[in-house]
């Protein structure tokens, strides 16, 4: 991946695209729970969504650092990248472990927007965060795999053509390590729909197009396997670091938006014959949020830099996501508090962004599980599970 020195022209493009999708657009999508297809198309046609796809396949072959900066700017502009970010965080799995045939078949069409790769099926209802405990099975029968099981929280599945799917190819009781025997597939959802795959939407507290997916003897070509059979957990972990860095960037963008919005309101709103921002009780939480967002950004940049050099970045990616999601959540709370009653009015967009940014304490990985990673894998304390 090549690096570029000056991100400003790309960020300017992001701001231009986002300017066409103001609060009213997102409020309408939120109210009706509709997928922001126009925004996704605009991000694709401007080339912003394809930055991680190599130039040879129609993308711009840039680094995760650039992708992270794009998603941060989307969120800082008041938009939301949740409708499209999966293409970026699953890209590493396809680029690093996919076959030449898979890349040649899919990447040019993903880059052009002809195909959407926006679904990432890992979580299952009974396994929860314990990913190695998933029970969705993919059994090899001749030149197909037969998939049975269920996924939950598979976001954007109704709006995606392709899905990266994690399934067990060897039962847990027949592998040496529980992380063995898991495999990753690139599933063509257009062929799967109605042929053994059923998608059911889940309505949530904000507009996220998330779903549950049922597999009932779904046959997928053996060529759908990404990389080596049984090694999928490693590929997914790799992708999860990218995901944490990109989500941290979205949180930083949200944090910037909340701080800017709160600051502007605090300067403008007059109560007791003075701007509310003249009171230190109002100023200090906003100033603290500003500092927390900036600090989280430094860790996120470091995580992205390590990822781009191919170095191990699990510690930094996890800490970046922890700090950024906490910073954005505190900034959201501060922004709402600064707005008083008006923070609850839809027209200010604060309550919507507040609901949206709350997710990142839980997904793609919850705060407790990050703390547990740091405690056990970085600090060497005893394993708790
Ligand atoms: C809107 C939304 C979109 C999502 N999109 C996707 C998607 O596209 N693809 C996908 O695969 N998944 C997706 N997810 C799933 C998400 O990654 C999981 O919800 C998340 O990883 C937490 O898993 P869980 O919900 O099963 O919680 P659980 O694992 O059941 O955990 C519940 C709570 O218990 C805590 N906990 C559990 N075990 C421990 C422990 N040992 N120590 C301390 N605390 C513990 C957790 O921190 C958490 O707070 C999405 C979720 C949501 C809500």
CATH architecture of the largest domain: Up-down Bundle
Determine the oligomeric state from the structure: single chain
CATH superfamily of the largest domain: Butyryl-CoA Dehydrogenase, subunit A, domain 3
Contiguous low-pLDDT stretches (5 residues minimum) are: none
The total of helices stands at 12
CATH fold-level name of the largest domain: Butyryl-CoA Dehydrogenase, subunit A, domain 3
Approximate strand percentage: 5-15%
Helix content: 40-55%
How would a crystallographer describe the biggest sheet? 4 strands, mixed
| Average pLDDT | 97
Structural class by secondary-structure content = alpha+beta
Secondary-structure element string: HHHHHHEEEEEHEEEHEEHHHH
Instruction: Tally the structural domains.
Output: 3
> How many strand segments?
10
Principal-axes geometry comes out as globular
Radius of gyration: 21 Å
Task: Assign the CATH class of the largest domain.
Answer: Mainly Alpha
- Rounded to the nearest angstrom, the distance between the terminal CA atoms is 37 Å
């Amino acid at each position: 991946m090549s690096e570029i020195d000056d991100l400003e022209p790309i960020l300017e493009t992001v701001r231009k695209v986002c300017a066409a999708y103001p609060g009213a657009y997102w409020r309408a999508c939120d109210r009706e729970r509709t997928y922001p297809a126009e925004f996704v198309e605009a991000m694709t046609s401007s080339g912003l969504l394809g930055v991680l796809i190599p130039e040879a396949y129609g993308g711009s072959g840039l680094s995760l650092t650039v992708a992270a900066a794009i998603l941060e700017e989307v969120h800082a502009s008041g938009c939301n990248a949740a409708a499209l970010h999966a293409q970026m965080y699953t890209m590493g799995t396809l680029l690093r472990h996919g076959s030449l045939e898979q890349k040649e078949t899919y990447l040019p069409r993903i880059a052009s927007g002809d195909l959407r790769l926006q679904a990432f099926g890992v979580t299952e209802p009974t396994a929860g965060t314990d990913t190695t405990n998933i029970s969705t099975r993919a059994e090899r029968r001749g030149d197909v795999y037969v998939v049975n099981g269920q996924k939950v929280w598979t976001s954007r599945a109704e709006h995606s053509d392709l899905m990266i799917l994690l399934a067990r190819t060897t039962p847990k009781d027949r592998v040496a390590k529980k992380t063995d025997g898991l495999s990753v597939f690139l599933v063509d959802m257009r062929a799967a729909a109605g042929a053994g795959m059923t998608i059911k939407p889940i309505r949530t507290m904000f507009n996220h197009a998330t779903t549950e997916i049922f597999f009932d003897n779904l046959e997928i070509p053996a060529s759908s396997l990404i990389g080596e059979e049984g090694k999928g957990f490693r590929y997914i972990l790799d992708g999860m670091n990218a995901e944490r860095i990109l989500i941290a960037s979205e949180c930083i963008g949200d944090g910037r938006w909340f701080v800017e919005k709160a600051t502007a309101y605090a300067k403008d709103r007059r109560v007791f014959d003075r701007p509310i921002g003249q009171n230190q009780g109002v100023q200090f939480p906003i100033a603290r949020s500003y500092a927390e967002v900036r600090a989280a950004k430094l860790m996120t940049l470091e995580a992205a830099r390590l990822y781009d050099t191919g170095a191990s970045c699990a510690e930094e990616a996890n800490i970046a996501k922890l700090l950024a999601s906490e910073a954005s959540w505190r900034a959201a709370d501060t922004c709402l508090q600064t707005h008083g009653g008006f923070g609850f009015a839809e027209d200010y967009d604060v309550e919507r962004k507040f609901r949206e940014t709350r997710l990142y304490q839980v997904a793609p990985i919850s705060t407790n599980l990050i703390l547990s990673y740091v405690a056990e894998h970085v600090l060497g304390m005893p394993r708790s599970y």
